[in-house]
Amino acid sequence: MGTDPLDPLDPLDPLDPLEPPDAPGLGRGVLHPARAAELITVDRLVPDPAVARFVEYYWLVRWDLCGLPPYEQKVLAHPNVHLVFEAPRARVYGVDRSLFVRRLEGAGHVLGARFRAGAFRALAGHPVSGLADRSVPAAEYFGPGADRFNAEVLGASGSPAALADAFLRPRLPEPDPVAAEVAAMVDRITGRPDLCRVDALAAELGLTVRRLQRLFAEYVGASPKWVLRRARLHEAAERAGTDGGLDLAALAAELGYADQAHLTRDFAAAVGVPPARYAGAGQAPRKRCSSSRT
């Protein structure tokens, strides 16, 4: 598997951090969402208030291919760390700065906890940049109980959010006030895809560029330049996937690119195909499997 979970696939990573937990759809960052929705269901679950200081939301992904061939879901991840309960054992996923690809076969489900940007630093005890582009057994941060709980939550019939709350609540440290400041910085970026320069962001925040870079390495696990670029790519992918007559030159200008060619190169480097081809490839969803899923 890759280095990012299926957040609501953001593991599949990821979703838009500004969307509420009950927001419809698979979430920003999930590529070709119309096609994915034929095979995948996603629920976002609200954590207990005490846990919500660290966890933005839980995500529960289910799939049932019903004899169909394996399916590869691609995701542009968000700047968040995830705790994922999955077979064969629970894992912690750092920020995946490349294109995450998750291969799905048969039927199954995964429960994940998406930590607020910066919040995992207090749990990690080290700069979150050390987790970038990799995953580690959850037991490294949560103790051997993580593996026991993994089997319990995957086999449970009750509320997975309540189970996850009970597991996390006694294991969470005191919140780090700097993490909240960093989360607000990330929210500023994700809420403004037209913001494209690190020096402009630093000026808005009243910080030096160097200080901003150090904070992101320590708390986010990706550079501010990467977070800025990823926010623009999320916007571009969403627009390309929903607007068949998209004016790429206008979109490039709106997102702060020098020209359409710059947008096309950036998009193709991250997604694997240029935006025009991506838009055309997402218009024909696969036939839905005739099985009962909750």
Q: Which SSEs are present, and which pair or pack?
A:
Layout (H helix, E strand, L loop, with lengths): L32 H5 L2 E6 L3 H4 L2 E10 L6 E6 L5 E4 L5 E3 L5 E6 L2 E9 L5 H4 L10 E3 L1 H4 L2 H11 L4 H9 L8 H14 L7 H8 L3 H11 L4 H19 L5 H7 L5 H12 L3 H7 L13
Antiparallel strand pairs: 1-2, 2-7, 3-6, 4-5, 4-7, 5-8
Describe the structure.
By secondary structure, the chain is α+β, with helices and mostly antiparallel strands. The protein is built from 13 helices and eight strands. The longest helix is centred in the last third of the chain and has 19 residues.
Short synopsis of the structure:
With 294 residues, this protein is of the alpha+beta class. It contains 13 helices and eight strands.
Strand content of the residues, in percent?
15-25%
Measure the end-to-end span.
Answer: 25 Å
Largest sheet: 6 strands, antiparallel
Our count of helices gives 13
* Uncertain segments: 1-24, 283-294
Shape call? globular
Q: Write the element-wise H/E pattern from the N-terminal end onward.
A: HEHEEEEEEHEHHHHHHHHHH
Structural class: alpha+beta
Task: Write a concise keyword list for the protein shown above.
294 residues, alpha+beta, two-stranded antiparallel sheet
